[in-house]
Design brief:
2 domains, alpha+beta, 379 residues, elongated, 6 helices
C-alpha cells in the first residue's frame, strides 16, 4: 500500500511550530522515513535521532574495521560483482619472469574479469585501481583535478547542460558513446551493527545489523509506519475529496482530526478497527480498481449496485455523511476544500488507544499521540 502515503507527509520538528500558511518543507517527511518513540509518543525525523555504529567488519574475512570510521568496503581480497553484487571467486595463475595474473568470476552471473599479467607485487585493490584507464574513469579524474580551475570546470558544466538539452536522441547517443565505461570488481560492503536513539529521551528506536542493502537483522525496531495510520487524499467530485485513514496496529484506535478554516470536515472524531490479515480487506474502496478481478469482486461486495450509480455534485455537498465509508481497519471521510488554490492540506491528528499495541505492553499503557499531517491536493 505504498501509494497511500506517497503524497502524505508528516511535519516532524519538536523545536519549530508549524506555520500552516507557509509550511517549511524541510520538516516534511514521508511516514516510511520516520521513527516512532514510544516514550515521547511522537514521530521522530532524522534530525531528532542519535545514530551510532557499534561495530563494523567484513562478513567474508571477518576483519574488524570498527576503528576506521571512513571505511565502508573491505580492503582485503574480498570482492563483489559490479553487476549483481554477488561474491566473486579469485583464481591466481603464474607466468614467466615472476609474473602473476588474477581472474575474477562471479558465483552467480556470467561476469568475468582478467587483470592480465602483473610483475610488481601489489594488493588486488591497487592492481585494479591501476587498470582503471577507460575513458569514463579518465574524464572523472580530470574533473577532480581541475576542481579549483573555474574556467575549465565551467566548460564541463556547459557540456553537461548541452547534453541535457539535446532534443535528438541520436545526438545524445553520439556524445555518450565518447565515454567507454568498464565494469570492475568492487570491494565487499562491510557489515555494520548500528543503533538509533531518540535525541530527547535517549530511548533505543532501532538496533540492527546491516550486511547488505536488502539484508537486515533487527533486534529493536520502532518505525513510524508500524504505529501511525497511513493517510491519503483522493478526489471525489469538483471540490469534494475523500480523506483515508488506515490503522496499522493490532488494537482498536480512536482518532480526532482538525484543520484550517478553508477545509470542511464532515466527521471530526472516529474509530479505526485493528489491522487485518486480509490484504484486500485493508484497502479503502477508492484504491480498488475495476481492472483487477479480485479488486472488482471486493468492490461489488462492498457497494453492490451503488458502484455503478452516477453521483451529482450537489448531492455530495448536501449529504456528506452518506459518503463516509468504514472498513475493517480503515475509514474514508469526505471533505470539502473551498479554496481551489490550495496545493496542500494540513490536518492535525490526535490518536488514542485503550490498550498498548503489541510489543509495547511493558512500555506504555496505551498510545496517545498528536501530530500534523500534510497531504497534497490531487489535481
Amino acid at each position: 500500500m505504498s501509494k497511500l502515503y506517497n503524497d502524505s507527509f508528516i511535519y516532524c520538528c519538536t523545536t519549530k511550530v508549524i506555520d500552516i500558511h507557509s509550511i517549511d518543507k524541510t520538516w516534511l517527511f514521508e511516514l516510511a522515513d520516520l521513527y516512532f518513540c514510544p516514550y515521547c509518543q511522537c514521530p521522530k525525523s532524522k534530525y531528532e535521532i542519535i545514530p551510532r555504529v557499534h561495530s563494523k567488519f567484513c562478513s567474508n574475512c571477518l576483519t574488524d574495521y570498527t576503528s576506521k570510521p571512513d571505511m565502508m568496503r573491505c580492503i582485503k581480497n574480498c570482492f563483489i560483482c559490479p553487476l549483481c553484487s554477488s561474491s566473486m571467486g579469485i583464481k591466481m595463475m603464474d607466468h614467466d619472469s615472476n609474473g602473476k595474473s588474477f581472474e575474477f568470476s562471479c558465483q552467480f552471473c556470467d561476469y568475468n574479469y582478467d587483470t592480465g599479467v602483473v610483475y610488481k607485487p601489489k594488493s588486488l585493490h591497487g592492481i585494479i585501481e591501476e587498470l582503471k584507464t577507460d575513458t569514463f574513469i579518465r574524464k572523472c579524474k580530470q574533473i577532480l583535478k581541475m576542481a579549483d580551475k573555474t574556467e575549465e570546470l565551467s566548460e564541463r558544466v556547459r557540456m553537461n547542460l548541452k547534453l541535457s538539452q539535446l532534443d535528438k536522441k541520436e545526438e545524445a547517443e553520439s556524445l555518450i558513446d565518447e565515454f567507454e565505461i568498464a565494469q570492475y570488481p568492487i570491494g565487499k560492503i562491510l557489515t555494520l551493527k548500528k543503533s538509533i536513539r531518540c535525541s530527547t529521551c535517549r530511548n533505543l528506536l532501532l538496533d540492527y545489523m546491516e550486511s547488505e542493502p536488502t539484508i537486515n537483522k533487527f533486534q529493536i525496531k520502532f518505525n513510524a509506519i508500524d504505529y501511525l495510520p497511513t493517510t491519503s487524499l483522493t478526489k471525489l467530485k469538483s471540490n469534494v475529496y475523500l480523506l483515508h485513514f488506515v490503522n496499522p496496529l493490532d488494537v482498536k484506535m480512536s482518532a480526532k482530526i482538525s484543520s484550517i478554516s478553508q477545509i470542511v470536515l464532515s466527521n471530526f472524531e472516529f474509530s479505526l478497527g485493528a489491522s487485518t490479515s486480509s490484504f484486500i480487506k485493508g484497502i479503502p474502496s477508492a484504491y480498488l480498481s475495476l481492472n483487477n478481478s479480485t479488486a472488482k469482486s471486493e468492490l461489488i461486495l462492498r457497494k453492490g449496485d451503488k458502484l455503478y450509480n452516477k453521483i451529482e455534485d450537489g448531492e455530495i455537498e448536501e449529504n456528506l455523511d452518506r459518503f463516509i465509508e468504514v472498513g475493517v481497519n480503515w475509514i474514508s471521510i469526505p471533505i470539502i476544500i473551498e479554496d481551489d488554490s490550495l496545493k496542500t492540506v494540513p490536518i492535525y491528528v490526535t490518536l488514542k488507544t485503550e490498550q498498548p499495541p503489541k510489543g509495547l505492553e511493558r512500555v506504555i499503557n496505551g498510545l496517545n499521540a498528536g501530530y500534523w499531517n500534510v497531504l497534497k491536493v490531487p489535481k
